[in-house]
Amino acid sequence: MTERPVPAGKVDRLSAFFRAFDLSVSVSDRPTPGADARLMVVGDARQLARQLVLDTDSPLSAPVDGQVLVVASISFGGSSNPLIVALPERVVVDVDESTVLHGIASGFVEEALNARCGQSAVIGRLCEVMLLLVLRQVIDAGTRAPGLLAGLSHPALHRALVAMHDAPDRPWRVEDLACVSGLSRSQFMASFRQTVGTTPSAYLTAWRLMLARRALANGAKIKAVAQRVGFGSASAFSRAYVRAFGHPPIVARHG
Question: Which top-level group of life is the source organism from (predicted)?
Fold first, then answer.
């Protein structure tokens, strides 16, 4: 069976994560306890930015090629954020690869090293943009290891992932997701499992439950959350929640 034509136009592979998870940034000489990652701006003795280094696991003392100008500790959803979990331990991006990235990194260093009015707000926004641009490059580079990054970089499957991220409440069928991807049902199923490492149904359920858990922690009601994330009933939602987290959703509301 031949592949269906992939729908025209680009889709946004990152915005759903920035909507789902709060991003906080702190700039300090020492790493912030509990942070998910560290974003270092590396440069030269003239304080000119040359590289961005994103560390998710490796120690701050791990050598870099140059002088560390600024270190930003980033919190972005922790282990509940599948994008953070999927990242390699270290990502290195040359700022000269993009005029936009070069300008933002240079502005970030200038703001971080000089006390000015509104400094924390400016630093937070610039760091968010730098993180987004680094993540964009990670996705564009792709990976051979099965997982979310491989799916987001796949020329067809990323459309199905974005569709699930953007509309978790929709009653997605495999046929719908295959059509979004421009693949036949059998091609889609085989490719999704091989590339992402799980089935579309399992991935969608995990994404829905992650969103639900965060909504419950913010005080949302169970029935409303169940509907918001695409479960047919509160009871079906509760059963799935217990299977995933080992306790009923009411615990998340009062935890």
Answer: Bacteria
For Cα atoms 185, 13, 87, give the angle at the middle one, nearest 5 degrees.
100
Of 184, 183, 190, give the one whose Cα is nearest residue 159: 183
| Separation in Å, CA 3 to CA 7, 192, 201, 240 | 12, 15, 21, 34
* Alpha helix stretches (DSSP H) within the chain: 15-20, 82-86, 99-113, 119-141, 148-153, 157-166, 174-181, 185-196, 200-217, 222-228, 234-245, 249-254
Given a contact cutoff of 8 angstroms between Cβ atoms, the answer to whether 131 and 23 are in contact is yes
The answer to whether 63 touches 114, Cβ cutoff 8 Å, is no
Q: Dig out the tokens for 111 from the structure.
A: 């703001």
Domains in the chain, please, with CATH?
Answer: 15-141 (no CATH), 150-254 (1.10.10.60)
The phi, psi pair for 73, rounded to 5°, reads -90, 130
Burial class (CB within 10 angstroms; exposed 0-12, middle 13-18, buried 19+) of 1: exposed
Structure tokens, 117? 């009015």
**What's the rounded Cα separation, in Å, for the pair 107 and 122?**
9
Residue 153 tokens read as: 């970089």
* CA 149/CA 140 separation, integer angstroms: 9
Q: State residue 255's pLDDT score.
A: 57
Q: What is the pLDDT of residue 31?
A: 63
pLDDT of residue 58: 62
- Determine the pLDDT at residue 3: 46
Mean pLDDT in order along the chain per 10 residues (255 residues): 51 95 84 84 90 82 84 92 94 92 94 87 92 94 92 97 97 97 97 98 97 94 95 95 95 75
